[in-house]
Amino acid sequence: MSTPAHQIITASPPQAAHFIDGRYVCATGALFENRNPATGALVSLVPEADESQVDDAVRAARRALSGPWGRMSEQERAALLRKVADGIMRRFDDFLRAEILDTGKPKSLAAHLDIPRGAANFNVFADQIMAVATESFRMATPNGGQALNYAIRVPRGVIAVISPWNLPLLLMTWKVAPALACGNTVVVKPSEETPTTAMLLGEVMNEAGIPPGVYNVVQGFGPSSAGEFLTRHPGVNGITFTGETRTGTAIMKAAAEGVRPVSFELGGKNAALVFADCDLEAAVQGTLRSAFANCGQVCLGTERVYVQRPIFEAFVARLKRAAEGLKCGDPFDASTTLGPLISQEHRRKVLSYYERARAEGAEIVTGGGIADMSSPFASGSWIEPTIWTGLPEESVVNREEIFGPCCHIRPFDEEDEAVAAANDSPYGLAAAIWTQDVRRAHRVASRVEVGIAWVNSWFLRDLRTPFGGSKQSGIGREGGVHGLEFYTELRNVCVQL
Question: Looking at residue 110, what DSSP letter applies?
Fold first, then answer.
């Protein structure tokens, strides 16, 4: 059954849907609840895709490869992607409301980051596909003639896109845009926590003229649900995933069947290195963002802070004051600066680390518990921003990714000590380096074992540059031409002249 998006969202109770072959497909089986993390109120009932619905989506994507989409030029695809970007911005308020209700994040964050970047991703890769070059060579042939070799990029096929809940539209389109720019088709499995914006994008795709079957969405969970059905489907040619390292490991095992390639951006336990010669106020404000933005639910966020001893006490005092100035409250209020965690389940996980820190003897500089909220937010997944000191490096709190609004601060004396501590992790996603010594900045950035090293900044992104993690933080790179590598295969054409 096909239903327009506005009727789905305004149904009573509100409904979410799959989007398959250009149509909204409502529930035929099990439903699960999508609740607002800020209030605990029901946002929508969401259908859980069964194996046959996932198969329908993959088959629709395969058919679209051989239809009009497969015969389009790069210029035609790029023009359609720009229309998608325009469509997101035209419906900015719809996407913003959906993202806030699903995630609980403050409007001040979602309006300036999530929705604009969701649209920008399509424009960036429309530009990129028109600018990327391949190689060509002339060669001598054994009979004394010549041949011309040149390479062309061809789409990989049907791409499974498994996207996370912390930046739902931004990170989903970060994968969908380059996949479509390269001529692939996609089946998206959004997080069960944040199903709405992926669904809404289907309507924008139709309005932009994207052919049916090019963009599909199946709702559900991971194991024994839509995620597993999709990653194991033999009609899928590649899998891209952002999320936990443990889930990435399971997906990689599924991808081995049929030898499908994967692109992963996984977990992190990111470090900030704050040197005594830094601009102290800039370092404090930068770390405030990197530790507490989106309630700490950012894969690039800072959970380990190493501060050179001469400024250690001043840094801790200033960061404490800044963290205590964050304002929890109505996510739709522009003055709110800290939203809730995504769910009660995730809050239980983060609180278990708060308890572990206390048991391991941490000094609690600030926070450490549940934020005190009044109605209608008393039932939300609120938590206090938390700062610790005094834990050893081998502490579980310093080793495992928590994904909450918290950080541990430790003093150091020498540069080598700080670099060694930052690298002493199975993860290698990001680092922030705060110093006004340009030689040290370049030196340390080259030594930290991460995919991206920021100097005197955090979350500053040029979308043309490579993005991804080292060690257990990922496989491959996204962004710019690097983001096109996964979504295409190179074919050599050899022409005897």
Answer: I
pLDDT digits (tens, 9 = 90+) for 77-130: 999 999 999 999 999 999 999 999 999 999 999 999 999 999 999 999 999 999
Read off the tokens for 116. 């604009």
468 domain-assigned: no
- At which residue do the structure tokens 């791409």 appear? 159
- Count of alpha carbons within 13 Å of 8, Cβ hemisphere only? 27
> Is residue 235 situated within a structural domain?
yes
Q: In angstroms, rounded to a whole number, what is the distance separating the alpha carbons of residues 380 and 402?
A: 19
Tokens of 400: 């495992």
Report which of 310, 273, 306 is spatially closest to residue 441, judged by C-alpha positions: 273
The reply to whether 151 and 185 lie within a common domain is yes
**201 residue type, one letter:** L
Over the stretch 233-276, which tens digit does the pLDDT of each residue have?
A: 999 999 999 999 999 999 999 999 999 999 999 999 999 999 99
Q: Could you tell me which of 20, 13, 34, 399 has the C-alpha nearest to residue 218?
A: 20
- pTM value is 0.95
**Is 61's pLDDT higher than 60?**
yes
Which residues form the catalytic set?
265, 299
What is the domain extent for residue 354? 270-461
